[in-house]
Amino acid sequence: MNILVINAGSSSLKYQLIDMDAEKVLAKGLVERIGIEGANLQHRPAGKEEVRIETPMKDHVDGMKLVLDALVDKNHGVIASMDEIGAVGHRVVHGGESFKESVLIDDAVMAAIEENVPLAPLHNPANIMGIKACLSVMPKTPMVAVFDTAFHQTMPAKAYLYGLPIDLYRRLKVRRYGFHGTSHMYVSKKAAELLGKPVESLKIVTCHLGNGSSVSAVDGGRSVDTSMGLTPLEGLMMGTRCGDMDPAIVKYLMDRDHLSIEDVDKILNKKSGLLGVSDLSSDMRDITSAAASGNEDAANALEMFCYRIKKYIGAYAAAMGGLDVIVLTAGIGENVAIVREKVLSGLEFLGVKMDKVKNESRPKDVLISTDDSKVKVLVIATDEEMTIARDTQRLVKG
Fold it and tell me: Which residues does the annotation say bind ATP (predicted)?
């Protein structure tokens, strides 16, 4: 079965077509600037040259038509017809409390996703547009929604409730939801597989470190705590997000600088994190380069980023009553050795011993801890698209 995986943004569509019999990516690509001048498709069929097509697209329906045309094109296509697409898996950011797992999409599911728009006003509307676009051009193809939040629905109340009036939870569902769930689920299972142990026997801290970053405590294969909260703003310092802070800062900034709540929201989400502290860039490659050249602000940004990850690892080891495995993944976790080194340094008291040579060797899906390290440390390349495709296939096959 071939599964088409869709990740829709407000003006973009990322896609992968995956042959699930071999778990092989046949083609992937990106439609960007939908509804904007300069709209284009970047299509990368496996084993062939990338194709770039620039053409006006008024909406996501036009974008999906262009994707499907590219997939069946005689020159750069990878399938003979749309009939070879068995199902479509859609990434949906926020499922709220409505969804504890992936589901086949029907009218009731669409209504529930729309009800969760207030919890993810930037993401869920775009995800909905992507689903509707696919339904309009592939009305008979089964569709599955895979939620970023679903994996974390196993958290106990002590982990997901805030110290706020309980009425705010009961009435408005203000609670911790967590994100990057497909990534945390994938790498925790992959870690168990690489170690040759059942995931049910392991206490794992998974660190998804990219422009958006989060840490999760995975006990016996179940998420029991995670760093992101009601929104992706809470938790670690990220590329442009501030992460954990005193909430009274919001009113202080509004009063002192005469800012609106929208102004402060923009500062916290778009102008903070690595970008804000370094006053340079949100890209960790720029930060590490500048820090190595003596830029003090960049050095502080790097140290803060790593320090906060380390604090969460220690906290989650305590929360689970032990620690067997640490997993580092995503763009920074997989590619930036100095970040891994700074995060792991000082965790020797937990039984962590890093092999410096392995850490420097651009590892993927391997141990970077020493043979006698009590806590195993792995660098694993995350694959959220494969997780979405597997869930889609499972549900479609019933």
Answer: 14, 208-212, 283-285, 331-335
- The reply to whether 184 sits in an annotated binding site is no
The helix/strand/coil state of 157 is helix
Residues composing the chain: 398
pLDDT at residue number 137: 86
| b/e 204-219 (16+ beta carbons within 10 angstroms → b) | bbbbbbbbbbbbbbbb
Calpha distance 245→166 (Å, rounded): 22
Q: Pairing between strand 40-45 and 51-54?
A: antiparallel
Asked whether the beta carbons of 391 and 22 are under 8 A apart, the reply is: no
pLDDT along the chain (398 residues), means of 10: 89 91 94 88 91 90 89 91 92 88 93 88 84 88 94 97 98 94 95 97 97 96 97 94 97 98 95 97 95 98 98 98 97 96 97 96 91 97 93 91
User: Taking the CB of residue 316, how many other CB atoms lie within 10 A of it?
Assistant: 25
What per-residue confidence (pLDDT) applies to 283?
93
pTM for the model: 0.91
In the chain, the amino acid numbered 62 is D
Query: 344 vs 6, 86, 226, 306, 368, CA distance in Å?
Result: 35, 43, 19, 9, 11
148 is catalytic: yes
By the 10 Å C-beta count (0-12 exposed, 13-18 middle, 19+ buried), 300 is classed as middle
341 known ligand binder: no
The pairing of strands 2-8 and 85-92 is parallel
**Cα distance between residue 65 and residue 31, in whole Å:** 11
HSE-CB for 8 with a 13 A CA cutoff: 26
Q: What is the DSSP letter of 346?
A: T
Q: Is 209 annotated as a binding residue?
A: yes
The verdict on whether residue 211 carries a ligand-binding annotation is yes
398 is in an annotated binding site: no
Residue entry with tokens 């392991």: 202
